[in-house]
Amino acid sequence: MAVAAVSAVGRWLTGGAPPKVRDRLLTTLIQRRPAVYISCAALLIMSVAAAIITRSGWAFAWLAIDAVLIAYRLYLSFRYDDGIRPPTEGREAVVASSFVLFVIFGLGCAASISTADPTLTLMAVISVMGVFAGLVSRWAAFPRLTLVTITLVGAPVCWSLAVLAGGAVWLAALQFALIGVTTSAQTIQNHHILVRMLRAEQRNWQMARTDLLTGLGNRAQLYEELNGACSRLRATPGEAGFALLYVDLDGFKTVNDTHGHAVGDKLLERIGRSLAAALDGDDRAYRIGGDEFLVVMPRADAARAEALATKIMAVIGASHDIDLPARVRVTASIGIALAPDDGCDAQLLIAHADRALYNAKRDGKDRFARYAA
Known about the structure:
The chain crosses the membrane at residues 34-53, 59-75, 95-114, 120-140, 147-173. The chain has 373 residues and is an alpha+beta fold.
């Protein structure tokens, strides 16, 4: 029950964004090793100074807790960060340990200020301001988490400043509180900017891999899929093969010549939707240009590929109503290549499926053909 409650609170603190954007935002929270070393050293200096100057039990306890949390943070860095790509594992543990470290740090700084030692007071205020500066930039991805952290770190320090010297420095406490509020406002502003940037980047990435007319994958996404499937086949002996269907429309040029390219585009759009609806499971359709489509069928043999080819021919061969006096009808010729039997390379498989398509058209169109070496 307690674990579920903590998990729910964690999701709320890091929520507020679509799943894919949230995943990218989590990555922005993770500092790389040089930044981790510097920030950990800065935090440890404060607790070491408190222990040396006060020689009190709370200061040594703070130093011990700091040392444990910092050692754990460094362990996470060495385990999950290879120094090349942003880490994708252990991110929640990094965020949780950093959050606890900051909260303990705020309490320690408040205790340091309450000693009225000028050196510790100055160091504590500077250190907490440094934490605020890091949070407003590094943790802007999740404003809820950042605002809670700023509050838990800043409130004890603000209180210690307010009661220091019998309240004689209350103006310093007020100034510190205002800085905390300003930092929070900047965090929210930075969050909105960051989310807009990530969403724009995501849209651009998707547009670069999508055929804008039909919404299907384009040539770039097709090659990405085929290269990945071929790599898995080569790396895993006994892995089930896949099928590639090369679909070309028969009579599409006549539609363009008779009714114009606008009607042709509408027809391609309708066929793209019909083709996607005809697929099952992990099967994916792509348009690589003109009236040419390709379908990738993971874990498919010849029988399944031929069954889908028959279904696609029936779907495309049906008449299509595109706001003309008469329905427009085209047919489809399909070439089939199987991996790894007909090759295990993206370009080679496409060439072989294209050769099979040529044979289907040569034999009368509106039919499918298997590749034969």
